[in-house]
Amino acid sequence: MASEELFKDVPPFPNDISTVQMSTISLSRLRENDAATAQQASTACAELGFFFLDLRGDSLGEAMVECIDELFYIGKDIFDLPESVKNQYLHDIPKSFLGFKPRGAAKTETKQPDRFEWFNLGQDGLMGTTDLQPLPDFVLKRIDYFKRHLSLPQDTFSALQRPTEPSGTAIRLIKTFASPDDEDLRTSMAHHTDFGTITLLANIVGGLQILKRGGSASDEGAWRWVRPQPGCLIVNLGDAMVQWSGGALRSNMHRIRYAPGEQRAVDRYSLAMLFRPEQNASMKPRVTRSAEGVEDTDLTAWEWEVKRMMAYSRGEAQAESKGGTAIKA
């Protein structure tokens, strides 16, 4: 997450709303191979599929916080560009998700236009696996910040997710618009699970909500707010981890709502690192167990993702939480 300094620039997160209880995992202790911390992370991945990753007190983590702060500034500069300039870098779905997505290009669960825009930068171009996508000149001059954000230790990735191989992994900058009017107090990004393996999310203003275990997406009382924490990334597992683990790990439903309390008056900026498998990786489960939503398939990751995207676009698939174990009382 961003540093404490950036949190000073926004109204406080309210204390009178229902927030989700999420584990906070120390990156420093994980890197020290602390057994208790590893077990804590494993439990969080199986029960909720979300946790806070505390970057503070770790050399790599502190460097990431500095980089995240700078990327927030770059993101604001991108979204402040005139619409005519941003439209020169439009994404081309389903051919490519890279580039700019305008506000209102997607729909919420009520079929209303969404209230956010994003700008995606692909890992393949940043790592030199393919040609770099077209980018504004001022982004090209600061491209090292994006490459630094990808520079995690090699053992962070599994053998099926090498950063030097083609994949759909991307850095996503997001702007969700302020909600000053009562008509804006609705969902900004529809409920969903992530397709990939792991998402690392940094934000300062609230708005993220997680569906509680056993809850229905149509029940407003089943959603819980996430309170952003300085120096902590929000980590959530995606559908690929459910598939590979044979359903042992959880991919939980979440959505972006309007920001709570006084925060509704400001724009909400986010930074997401969306990790996806190598395009040619097999999606066959690595663990043999019977679990709903897990396919016995030899499709490649690219084929698997396209199949799922097409099913959603045709209305043949329903967004729902997948996998994991029950949360203990």
Automatic annotation (TrEMBL):
Lineage top rank: taxon: Eukaryota
Gene3D superfamilies: B-lactam Antibiotic, Isopenicillin N Synthase, Chain
GO biological process assignments: small molecule biosynthetic process
Keywords: Iron, Metal-binding, Oxidoreductase
All copies of domain Fe2OG dioxygenase, residue ranges: 169-277
Record flagged with keyword Iron: yes
A Pfam family of this chain: 2OG-FeII_Oxy
Keyword ATP-binding: no
Residues annotated as transmembrane: none
Gene Ontology MF term list: metal ion binding; oxidoreductase activity
Family membership: Belongs to the iron/ascorbate-dependent oxidoreductase family.
Protein name: Fe2OG dioxygenase domain-containing protein
Species, as recorded: Akanthomyces muscarius
Upper lineage: Eukaryota, Fungi, Dikarya, Ascomycota, Pezizomycotina
